[in-house]
Amino acid sequence: MVLLTVFALEVVAQQPAIQYFRPYDKRGINVFETSKEDTVGYDGLKLRIGAGFTQGFQKLKHSNGIDPTGLYEMGGGFPLAQANFNIDVQLYDGVSLNLVSYMSSHHHNEFWVKGGYLQIDKVGFLKSEFMDNLWKNLTLKVGHMEINYGDAHFRRSDGGHTLWNPWIENNIMDAFTTEIGAELYWQKNGIIAMIAMTDGEIQGNVADPSTPDGAKRKPSIYGKVGFDKQLQDNLRFRLTGSFYTTKSSASNTIFGGDRTGSNYQYVMDNAPVTVTGNYTSGRFNPGFRDNVTTFVINPFVKFSGLEVFGTLEFAKGRNQFENGEGTTPARAAIDNREASQIAAEALYRFGKDEQFYFGGRFIKVDATVAEGVTAANAGIQYDVTIDRFSVGGGWFITRNILLKGEYVNQNYDGFPNTGANNRFFEGNFKGFVIQGAISF
Q1: Pairing, β 138-146 against β 112-120
Q2: Whose CA is closest to 392, among 263, 279, 266, 256?
Q3: Residues 282-324: pLDDT tens digits?
Q4: How far apart are the C-alpha atoms of 192 and 35, rounded to whole Å?
């Protein structure tokens, strides 16, 4: 890690400035959509190379109400380090390319491309004064990219890049995926509006199934509206609302699209375990793989060193068998299942450059789970609740290096003591995790 730190500092000192860019270091914290402020002049093609690296230590213990328990015998230790590789290119005035790859992660520990996109903030290449004026408030993103649903994804850990996240882990119901499509933004005087369309799936797909009925692949439509403004020198207020919907998908992953993995390794997992196979530990996916509609509201307030961020989320949907697709014998579609999530966090940042912080967070998920649903079996449904409380803090040693720690306590309620999910019956995990993060 020392060698990587020295290398990072040398590279950072030589990095070119990219237009309309969110820095990967401390300067990128509390940056959401990139603004329309034109602060970097264009003087030709530029290539910027960056990376993110995270190494953690965890001391967690887990338990459930099953006797004897099948949970993995877990002690203190160092999870697999995770690393990202970032390429940003200034292609033209107001036109840039972003490409991110995972060099090592808990899900894919081989080199794996996350995605990439073209971002257009100026259209001088069209040689049109009308389009130049029109585009002063517009931004277009096109590619296979992290979709902009909600605001929590701007603060989440993403493989080796964990420096923007003040916590160790993401939300319990982690709304994150990459899809192929386009997002169009309009921004003016603090008002933000965005509309987007994608293929609705994490991978490219050219299939056009004729059977079963209802299996046709449909695009995903999503959008966001909000207000974000520095009201006073020491007061910033942001409030956004987002939606995401798709009517039919081969395999939608809006709540399960992370290809890197959890930062609470192996919690609530039965033995035997593998790094790549047990990568969602501590998270919950409602399993809306065929059709899904979800809404989220995210408030954010920063007053001097005090920072408050919240999530209020409502989702409903079904998988393909619940939708009656390919069932034998044929079954009618059942009602949509529902899931909701509330999350609230408060931080206090202090020090000359706000290089220190501490705070607390609470998350609660209520959902209806479908278990044992197959083409031949209607399965069962039951309601569950998962809640998490955590306290933690961090120290930015430099703007590229963060040391952070957290104590977490997570509980599971409503899961049965038999069936595929019985490991969560009266489940609990708790303990602490420490991480060192480098991003540049």
Answers
A1: antiparallel
A2: 263
A3: 999 999 999 999 999 999 999 999 999 999 999 999 988 888 7
A4: 10
First-residue to last-residue Cα distance in the chain = 14
For residue 108, the model assigns a pLDDT of 82
What mean pLDDT comes out for the span 107-123?
92
Bridge partner list, 409? 389, 430
Residue pair 275/109 in contact (Cβ under 8 Å)? The answer is yes
Give the type of residue at 323. N
Using CA atoms, how far apart are residues 396 and 383, in angstroms rounded to an integer? 41
CA distance 148 to 166: 20
- How far, in Å, CA of 82 to CA of 160, rounded? 4
The candidate with the shortest Cα–Cα distance to 411, out of 74, 63, 175, is 63
In 189-290, which ranges are E strands?
191-198, 220-232, 235-246
Would you state the structure tokens that stand for residue 14, as one six-digit string?
């030589």
User: 3-class SS at 134?
Assistant: helix
Could you tell me how many helices (H) and strands (E) the chain has, helices first?
Answer: 2, 16
In DSSP notation, 148-203 reads --SSGGGSS-BTTB-TT-SSSS--SS----EEEEEEEEEEETTEEEEEEEE-SSSS
Distance of alpha carbon 437 from alpha carbon 406, whole angstroms: 14
Tell me the one-letter amino acid at 307: E
Report yes or no: 302 and 235 within 8 Å, Cβ to Cβ.
yes
Q: Which two tokens stand for residue 124?
A: 């001088």
Domains along the chain? 2-439 (2.40.160.10)
Q: For 27, list phi and psi in degrees, rounded to 5.
A: -65, -20
How far apart, in whole angstroms, are the C-alpha atoms of residue 159 and residue 53? 8
Does residue 316 contact residue 296 with C-beta atoms inside 8 Å? Answer: no
Q: Are 361 and 167 spatial neighbours (Cβ–Cβ below 8 Å)?
A: yes
pTM of the predicted structure, to 2 decimals: 0.93
